[in-house]
Write a structure and sequence with these properties.
By secondary structure, the protein is mainly beta. It is built from 2 helices and 24 strands. The protein has 2 domains: 155 residues, Cathepsin D, subunit A, domain 1 (Beta Barrel); 169 residues, Beta Barrel (Cathepsin D, subunit A, domain 1). The relative contact order is 0.14. This is Acid protease. Keywords: Signal.
């Protein structure tokens, strides 16, 4: 086992094995667009292929970058240090994807492809270095991450806080989940931390009536429109890992100008409404593409890519908002009750 100490933006990886073993420092990207903690196998102290290959094969495909990461899911103990002080530790144990191979795979098919890229673009990297990605998202399995269940989520695998055991299913005083703001993240939910969120809550849905893990939820529902066109209900992702946005909409009812495909031209309007028509929309973001002030201070993404699909393709409308939306709202994910809540930032 290894212990990972997290303080502010840095992760310190300390071997608990042989005395004098290598100590390394890592600075991970916190990513709601993926689920699973990825670190380069080459950067793990005492890693060797014989030992590593006794663990399950793993992979994650990140659709925004078209990168496929493959390796082995190896169990580690993680210790999150309080970002402001050393007053308490938060501990978790979960499999980490020790990445042995990385490739750019533009034609990756989530429905059939797995850990191997059939037609890579450029050279496939063997034993790449420098990978540090802590994925804490939910509902990511259909988007190239079929192994991205809650057991791979570091923030849903907390076993103790300040030495006090925490049940993974929660208790009357603590629920597994997190709060994300533009400035950082809070691990776990309490009644006091959720006070400002209660009026603006979107109920989530399980992927089936018999989910493999009751903490597993589909993406947040959202209604998406461009230039006051038809509002298309679909899936939303508030992605901390990127500052641009990606949208997929039906061809019918969507009129958009993209001089350089698929980039949406400046001056066009976009609306995202979180929630459903049945339960009510709890918050909405309306903005003009290319608004300089909005890009620097507001919710406007740096760039928006948009694809239109005919009904025959059967593509579910969806939007990856990017992280700028966190400038307007903090969001809280409750893995037990199944909700995503919003509060003014």
């Amino acid at each position: 086992m290894l212990s990972i100490l997290v303080k502010a933006s840095a992760i310190y990886l300390v071997s608990t094995g042989v005395t004098g073993a290598t100590v390394k420092t890592y600075k991970p990207v916190l990513d709601t667009g993926s689920c699973g903690f990825m670190i380069s196998a080459a950067d793990l102290p005492n890693w060797n292929i014989t030992w590593a290959h006794t663990f399950p094969l793993g992979w994650e495909f990140l659709s925004s970058s078209k990168k496929l990461y493959s390796g082995r899911w190896i169990p580690y103990e993680i210790v999150f240090k309080n970002a402001a002080s050393n007053l308490f530790d938060i501990k978790a144990t979960l499999p980490i994807l020790a990445v042995e191979e990385r490739s750019v795979c533009p034609d990756y098919d989530e429905a059939v492809d797995t850990y191997f890229c059939p037609v890579p673009s450029g050279t496939v990297e063997s034993m790449p270095t420098g990978i540090r990605l802590m994925g804490i998202g939910f509902g990511r399995q259909p988007d190239g991450q079929p192994q991205g269940y809650p057991d791979k989520n570091p923030l849903l695998s907390v076993s103790s806080i300040a030495g006090v055991s925490v049940p993974v299913t929660g208790s009357t005083s603590y629920r597994p989940g997190y709060i994300i703001t533009a400035d950082g993240i809070t691990v776990g939910l309490t009644s006091s931390s959720m006070t400002s969120f209660s009026p603006k809550t979107v109920k989530l849905t399980h992927p089936s009536t018999t989910p493999l893990d009751t903490r597993d939820w589909l993406p947040v529902p959202v209604c998406i429109s461009v230039n006051s066109g038809t509002c298309a209900p679909g899936n939303g992702l508030i992605d901390t890992g990127i500052d641009q946005s990606y949208m997929h909409l039906p061809s019918a009812g969507t009129t958009v100008v993209r001089t350089v495909f698929p980039i949406v031209d400046a001056g066009q309007t976009v609306q995202w409404k979180f929630g459903t028509a049945v339960d009510g929309y709890v918050v909405a973001a309306d903005f003009v593409v290319g608004d300089t002030v909005g890009m620097e201070q507001g919710v406007v993404p740096r760039e928006i890519s948009l694809w239109k699909h005919p009904a025959s393709e059967g593509v579910t409308p969806r939007v990856n908002t990017g992280r700028h939306i966190l400038r307007r709202w903090a969001v809280a994910f409750d893995a037990i009750f199944g909700s995503l809540s919003f509060a003014a930032a």
